[in-house]
Write a sequence for this structure.
């Protein structure tokens, strides 16, 4: 048991801070228009990759840094603390890249991994469907094997960055005669293929990071099946469980930077001639929000310790996900309660609205509780 | 950073658990001392993490021993093999161990302390007091205090009001950090005991939900019950993470260790109480009978939650410190 970072990690922390101090752009310099913004963020990620801060723990032979996982977490936390711009190939970095590394063959690793790291190619994930949300295994998108390869037909939704993606990891049913979890395969779909149609959707935050994806007779070559046919569900669940845990450590740092901003804004805002922060009720609301963020840090640090030190993380990551969503939602609500709905302004409106997605994306709170009930508490099935 | 227990720590935890399970109630305390569960100095010294592991086992089996209390005192002052209890709260006042109204004058202690667990069972009392040297920690034989039992949810831990009327102190430690450390370590260990109690309550409730049948089904197959138990699980585990993190922060002398301890105490007090409430709910009517064990976990959790500052008191001081930092309050 050791909280303190090692000497190498502390050195890395200093290096990352120096890099960010020199290169991290002012948020106002990032273009607002979505197309320009994405182009800008691709250049930003490419620069971070060159500096060795993207895919630091991925295998060196496929373009990664070949360093311990704990170093990538140090980097991610420093990026979050500095409020550095997001990495635009986030879906590739968090979900499909790890899936290719773990379940793909060497040819696939050589072809796809490096462009994910450099943001040369953006990935999206085609998992959810209009009729298959929480019940993902009941998905209806079909893949039929033909002489030319697999032919895919169906509709996908909640595709983050779909309109900018070159590749999509699509879950499709390849065998209707086996139990529903067993008949699903994961395909690497070229978004430039004939029959691919992407339609952006506006979110409640006003942004259009999401799209719908329509697949109409899209042909996918045999070599673009990831893992074995029928292994798609296993791969998807593995990478999603993994992402739930790894996302939490940088996320708690981001929440903490937002919390500090909220406290500063409350200190400077006046009501009835006194600072909002002088109010005991406001102090208590803020203290409870801080406690949730700190406990998220404690719990994510402990739960992810086996992974950071070379092991694996299982269903315990569902508990981290529950706390992460709750901390984010408590903070979003606290901002409105303390500052007032109008006084909060756009920044807090967006945080508040976005926080409502935290208990839905990556598996709802109810799905996480079900995973814990089944796989940790071994309760009888519903 | 690595928050996994080491081999030795796992061994310690399992050994202590087996020992408490094996010994008759009246021998648990002596066996723990002989085992070395209070050794916080020397080559084989236990840190706060190790003390917390023992405290968790004490809570898991609801052992009625002044372990948390003695270990916290041992951690800050060398007192030999005796049992001890920190006296940090004062009647009618918010939790403020570094601002006592109790006074030490010419080596003699005068004042009242409330909610002292095992006051009548321990050898020594550790009492913060104001003196001409500033804040001190006075060590007074329990025999020198007037001890009056207080009403309590958990009679097994025998909380009392202790009064000192010019009681002679054995020793005086003129060190503010000793008092701060006593409060922080005590709070972390009390939390660890509560987590132990909560984890057993969860285990019992889980087992019951896996057997009990209603409406033709095992109740653990009903989503409302499954989700309640899942939330209880997350509360036990996250509380334990917070306790271990705070314990490690104290051991490694992290700059924000005292604040982390305060956060762990506040969070654990509420979370473990929720777990006990959840357990009673899963058991239903049967848990309302005195012979059923569930209420004893609830009682222990409630009493440890009230010690070393309540959740509300820690939240309030955390909130005030935010305002102080930004100079809204001075």
């Amino acid at each position: 048991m050791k909280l303190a970072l090692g000497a190498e990690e502390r050195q890395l922390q200093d290096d990352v801070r120096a890099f960010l101090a020199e290169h991290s752009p002012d948020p106002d310099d990032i273009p607002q228009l979505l197309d320009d913004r994405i182009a800008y963020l691709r250049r930003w990620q490419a620069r971070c990759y060159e500096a060795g801060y993207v895919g630091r723990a991925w295998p060196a032979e496929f373009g990664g840094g070949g360093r311990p996982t704990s170093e990538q977490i140090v980097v991610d936390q420093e990026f979050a603390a500095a409020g550095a711009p997001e990495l635009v190939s986030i879906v590739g970095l968090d979900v499909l890249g790890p899936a290719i590394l773990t379940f793909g063959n060497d040819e696939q690793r050589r072809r796809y991994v490096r462009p994910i790291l450099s943001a040369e190619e953006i990935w999206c994930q085609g998992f959810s469907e209009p009729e298959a949300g929480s019940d993902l295994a009941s998905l209806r998108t079909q893949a039929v094997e033909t002489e030319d390869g697999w032919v895919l037909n169906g509709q996908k939704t909640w595709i983050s960055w779909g309109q900018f993606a070159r590749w999509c990891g699509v879950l499709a049913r390849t065998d209707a005669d086996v139990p529903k979890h067993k008949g699903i395969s994961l395909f690497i779909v070229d978004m430039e293929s004939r029959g691919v149609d992407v339609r952006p959707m506006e979110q409640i935050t006003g942004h259009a990071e999401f799209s719908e994806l329509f697949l109409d007779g899209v042909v996918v070559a045999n070599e673009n099946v990831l893992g074995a046919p029928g292994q798609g569900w296993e791969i998807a669940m593995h990478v999603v469980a993994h992402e739930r845990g790894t996302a939490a450590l940088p996320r708690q740092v981001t929440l903490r930077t937002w919390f500090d901003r909220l406290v500063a804004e409350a200190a400077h805002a006046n009501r009835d001639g006194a600072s909002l922060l002088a109010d005991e009720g406001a102090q208590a609301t803020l203290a409870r929000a801080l406690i949730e963020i700190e406990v998220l840090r404690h719990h994510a640090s402990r739960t992810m310790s086996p992974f950071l030190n070379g092991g694996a993380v299982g269903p315990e990551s569902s508990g981290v996900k529950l706390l992460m969503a709750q901390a984010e939602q408590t903070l979003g609500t606290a901002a409105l309660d303390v500052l007032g709905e109008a006084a909060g302004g756009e920044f807090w409106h967006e945080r508040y609205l976005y926080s409502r997605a935290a208990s839905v994306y990556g598996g709802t709170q109810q799905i996480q509780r079900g995973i814990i009930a089944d796989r940790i508490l071994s309760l009888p099935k519903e | 950073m690595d928050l996994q227990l080491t081999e030795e720590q796992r061994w310690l935890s399992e050994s202590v658990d087996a020992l408490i399970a094996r010994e008759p109630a009246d021998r648990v305390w002596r066996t723990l001392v002989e085992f070395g569960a209070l050794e916080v100095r020397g080559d084989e010294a236990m840190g706060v993490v190790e003390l917390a592991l023992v405290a968790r086992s004490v809570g898991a089996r609801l052992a009625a021993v002044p372990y948390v209390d003695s270990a916290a005192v041992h951690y800050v002052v060398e007192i030999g093999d005796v049992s001890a209890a920190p006296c940090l709260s004062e009647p009618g006042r918010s939790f403020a161990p570094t601002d006592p109204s109790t006074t030490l004058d010419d080596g003699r202690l005068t004042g009242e302390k409330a909610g002292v667990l095992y006051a009548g069972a321990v050898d020594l009392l550790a009492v913060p007091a104001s003196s001409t040297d500033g804040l001190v920690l006075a060590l007074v034989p329990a025999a020198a205090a007037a001890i009056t039992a207080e009403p309590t949810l958990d009679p097994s831990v025998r909380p009392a009001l202790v009064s000192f009327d010019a009681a002679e102190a054995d020793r005086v430690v003129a060190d503010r950090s000793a008092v701060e450390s006593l409060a922080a370590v005590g709070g972390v260990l009390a939390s660890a005991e509560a987590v132990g109690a909560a984890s057993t309550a969860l285990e019992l409730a889980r087992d019951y939900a896996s057997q009990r049948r209603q409406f033709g089904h095992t109740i653990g197959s009903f989503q409302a019950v499954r989700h309640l138990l899942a939330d209880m699980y997350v509360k036990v585990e996250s509380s334990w993470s917070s306790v271990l993190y705070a314990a490690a922060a104290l051991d490694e002398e992290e700059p924000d260790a005292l604040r982390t301890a305060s956060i762990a105490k506040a969070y654990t007090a509420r979370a473990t109480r929720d777990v006990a409430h959840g357990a009673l709910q899963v058991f239903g009517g049967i848990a309302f009978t005195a012979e059923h064990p569930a209420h004893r976990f609830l009682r222990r959790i409630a009493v440890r939650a009230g010690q070393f500052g309540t959740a509300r008191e820690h939240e309030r001081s955390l909130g005030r410190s935010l305002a102080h930092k930004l100079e809204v309050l001075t």
Notes: Chain B has nine helices and ten strands. Strands of chain B lie at 84-86, 103-105, 108-116, 124-131, 134-141, 146-149, 160-168, 171-173, 213-214, 217-218. The CA atoms of residues 106 and 132 of chain B lie 9 Å apart. The longest helix of chain B spans residues 176-211.
